[in-house]
Design a protein that fits this description.
Layout: E1 3-8, H1 21-29, E2 35-42, E3 63-67, H2 72-79, H3 81-88, H4 100-112, H5 122-136, E4 140-145, H6 149-161, E5 164-169, H7 186-202, E6 205-208, H8 211-217, E7 225-227, E8 246-251, H9 261-273, H10 275-280, E9 281-286, H11 291-299, E10 306-308, H12 314-323, E11 326-330, H13 344-348, E12 355-358, H14 364-372, E13 375-378, H15 383-398, H16 414-424
Parallel strand pairs: 1-2, 1-4, 2-3, 4-5, 5-6, 6-7, 8-9, 8-11, 9-10, 11-12, 12-13
Helix pairs in contact: 2-3, 5-6, 6-7, 9-15
Protein name: Glycosyltransferase family 4 protein
Domain Glycosyltransferase subfamily 4-like N-terminal: 105-235
């Protein structure tokens, strides 16, 4: 007989972006391991990105519970839709570029909505789910964040009903990079820390997506912590013809601080020094790109070589991954980003296209790329190595031999990862 579990998540189709796919895929495969998932989501969410193509991936027989949510982004959007939408996507303008309205929004978001702007969904959800859990005799619940306010739902249901509670962290809480930009007061910082500690020490099981986050959380709690990364799923796109140009593609958002001037300089010099490279090269930016990134690209005279595609559906982004010659993975060079493993990395590694990654030393991403033999990882001072590697790939492109020889990918398949989850349940 299948075991019922309740999954509490904010992101669900038609939401777009990486946050939705983790639990959409777990829900897809859990029934194969004798687990019956029931999904609880907001009835009227304010999703910053929409991808209707993901709706078709929801299993037909899954029970989905919905309850209304009251979000401040809707009110703020009535005042300044552009600023609200940008901030809700996680693209926070540089301090010197912030308008008065954006500064006020960030202060209010950071200090009046702790842990986040979805906090108003906590109490109504506790009341609604308490009755449902008791009626359906559900013994295990899972909360996934961000938004980390959903863990407060799990905290209360654990206390009220004594259910087994698994808290899943797709990103860290108080050490995530954007916390520094929220204009938090000392009291607000302390409140975040206290809530984080309470959640980590009350959940029966904690799941994280990286070993760096596991090490961080082990300094706060003695509760069991398991690393279950994101992953890749079966190919829904099929064979795609490669670009005729030497294309470098970055899939996903390029935030204000995710701006690798070392890369723009390398590309600019290769263009100046190599006429055939200049003729063949194209940079595809697939996703939201901040203004200062575009300004940096222009500063290095690359504007005529870019295709700023913007946000597209997940299915279309996979096509870009498969047809591009090289795939770019760029992370901010900071201590806080060592634990970030973008969901796209796992689709990158099965695309048969070499990865060129830039990020901090000691990153989980570096370890995965090396272990799977799917590309090269550079620090922000590896100028010569980065330049020579891109030229090496360009020569392989000219010789029609540009590809990867990956190893050990199966453990990152969504079904294998779901099996690990089912053992915890």
């Amino acid at each position: 007989m299948s075991k019922k579990i309740l999954i509490i998540t904010y992101y669900w189709p038609p939401a777009g972006g990486p946050g939705v796919q983790r639990w959409l895929k777990f829900v897809k495969y859990l029934p194969e391991f004798d687990v019956e998932p029931i999904v609880y989501i907001p009835e009227n969410p304010s999703y910053p990105l929409i991808d209707k193509s993901l709706i078709s991936e929801i299993p037909d027989n899954i029970i989905i519970l919905k309850h209304p949510i009251n979000e401040p982004y809707k009110f703020a959007g009535a005042l300044s839709n552009k600023s609200t939408n940008t901030i809700s996507k996680g693209i926070i303008p540089e301090k010197k570029r912030q308008s008065f309205f954006e500064k006020v929004m960030l202060y209010i978001r950071g200090n009046f909505f702790i842990p986040d702007a979805r906090k108003n969904w906590v109490k109504p959800s506790i009341n609604y789910l308490s009755e449902y859990i008791s009626k359906e005799n559900i013994k295990t619940i899972i909360t996934t964040g961000p938004p980390h306010s959903l863990h407060l739902i799990g905290l209360s249901l654990k206390d009220k009903l004594g259910v087994k509670w698994i808290a899943d962290f797709r990103d860290p809480w108080t050490t995530i990079g954007y916390h520094k930009q929220l204009k938090l007061t000392k009291a607000s910082k302390c409140k975040h820390k206290a809530l984080e500690k309470q959640v980590l020490n009350t959940a029966d099981q904690v799941i994280v997506t990286s070993s760096v986050t596991k090490n961080e959380f082990q300094q706060i709690t003695n509760q069991p912590i398991e690393v279950i990364t994101n992953g890749y799923d079966n190919d829904l796109v099929g064979k795609i013809e490669q670009d005729s140009k030497f294309t470098l593609a970055h899939i996903g958002s390029l935030l204000s601080k995710r701006n690798p001037e070392i890369l723009w300089q390398v590309l600019s010099e290769n263009i100046q020094e190599n006429e055939s490279f200049a003729h063949d090269f194209q940079l595809n930016l697939v996703g939201a790109v901040s203004e200062n990134v575009l300004e940096s690209i222009n500063k290095y005279n690359l504007s005529n070589y870019i295709d700023n595609v913007g946000y597209i559906s997940h299915k279309e982004s996979v096509k870009f991954q498969k047809k591009s010659q090289l795939l770019l993975l760029i992370e901010i060079d900071s201590e806080e980003t060592k634990c970030i493993i973008p969901g796209k990395l796992f689709e990158y590694i099965v695309s048969n296209r070499p990865i060129v990654a830039l990020g901090p030393k000691g990153s989980d991403v570096e370890n995965i790329i090396k272990e799977t033999n799917t590309g090269d990882y550079f620090y922000y001072n590896d100028y010569k190595s980065l330049k020579s590697t891109i030229l090496m790939h360009y020569k392989a492109f000219q010789n029609k031999t540009l590809k990867t020889q990956p190893i050990g990918l199966q453990k990152y398949h969504r079904k294998s990862l779901t099996e690990s989850l089912s053992k915890l349940i």
